[in-house]
Amino acid sequence: MADRLPPPPFWRLPYLERQMARPDRALVRHDDIAATLSAPTRTLRQEDGRVRYWGWVEREGRWLRVVVEPDGETVLNAFWDRGFKP
Questions:
Q1: How far apart are CA 67 and CA 62, in angstroms?
Q2: Cα–Cα distances in angstroms (integers) from residue 48 to residues 29, 34, 41, in the given order
Q3: Model-level pTM?
Q4: Chain centroid, CA 56 distance in Å
Q5: Which of 7, 53, 70, 83 could form an S-S bond across to 66 if both were Cys, CB 3.0 to 4.6 Å?
């Protein structure tokens, strides 16, 4: 992927940086994303090859969903998942 941004903190698309600037995602931090990727509670591969990871963020008391591109390392999106049930 030519347009991805390099680490640190991890490979990511510019789309992620734009999304994280939104007020409803202001509390999502890069370290929350990295922690979810390193020790997810659940993982699911989508039909398009992307992978969803869910992790509990104790500081916020919420579930974080992180979506990674099919390459397995480039983060596309991250957001609080209000509907996730472990």
A1: 16
A2: 26, 22, 21
A3: 0.93
A4: 12
A5: 53
